[in-house]
Write the C-alpha cells for this entry.
Amino acid sequence: MKPSTKIILPSALALGFLLTACDNDKITPELSVPVKDNVSFALDIQPILSGQCAGCHNPGNVNPDLRKEVAFSSLLDDGKGIVPGDSEGSELVEMLQWKSADGKNMPPAMPLSPLQIGLIKKWIDEGAQNN
Ligand code: HEC
C-alpha cells in the first residue's frame, strides 16, 4: 500500500461518516437526546428560564414572569401552554421546538439546545411539579 492510500482511505471513510451524521441531524432537528429521570424544576428548569427567558420575561417587559421564585406559578397559570403529564399536548413545547402555529417561537432569536428542550419535556411529562 502506498503511503498516500493509507491516509486517503481512512479520511474518506471519516468524511462519509460525518456527512451521514449531519444528514441525520437535518432530518430530525430536535433529535431526542437522552434525558435523566426525576427532572427538578429548581435545579434543571429554573436555570434555563433565568438564563434564556427572564431577560425578556419580567414585570417591566413581557408576561409570563419567568424570574426565579415566580416562574413556576407564572408558567402553571391557565393559558401559558403547559399540560402537566403531556408534553406533546403542551403548546409551550411547540413554541420551544419552533413549531408554534401562531409564530410565537421561544426564545425568539434562537431555539434552546435539544438537551434543554428534552429536560423541559421530561419535566412536563413527569407532572410539571415544583420540585
Ligand atoms: C427576546 C425576548 C424574549 C425571550 C428571550 C423569550 N421570550 Fe417568550 N415572549 C416574548 C414576547 C415579546 C412574547 C409575546 C409574544 C406575543 O404575544 O406575540 C412572548 C411570549 C411568551 C409566552 C406567552 C405566549 C402566549 O401565547 O401568551 C410564553 C409562555 C413564553 N414567551 C415563553 C418563553 C420561554 C419559556 C422563553 C425561554 C426559553 C422565552 N419565552 C424567551 C419575548 C421573549
